[in-house]
Amino acid sequence: MRPDVLAAILAMAIVTYACRAGGYAILRAVRAPRFVERMLQHLPGPLFCAYVAPSLAQWGAFGWIAAIAVMAAQYATGNLAAAILAGALAMAGLQMLG
């Protein structure tokens, strides 16, 4: 492994940890206003949409079908690994057909 790549990976890990730990430390020390607490409660949904939307737009109908397979597997099994596997298999199968 190249030293510069290892240094970059370690630096990113440290910065990521510092950001997360810093946020927890600030929210423990300072009481956030009520609107901030409510906003943070609803943040995971929009973040998930922001991650998923570009892929769905890129893959079109295949992406939507694979997303439906993920949701169906998650609903049926309650297992995240099974849902991810269902989506990956659905996308692979659709790409072989198309």
TrEMBL record:
Keywords: Membrane, Transmembrane, Transmembrane helix. PROSITE patterns: PROKAR_LIPOPROTEIN (PS51257). The chain crosses the membrane at residues 6-27, 48-73, 79-97. InterPro entries: Brnchd-chn_aa_trnsp_AzlD. It comes from the Bacteria. Pfam families: AzlD (PF05437). This is AzlD domain-containing protein. It comes from Plastoroseomonas hellenica.
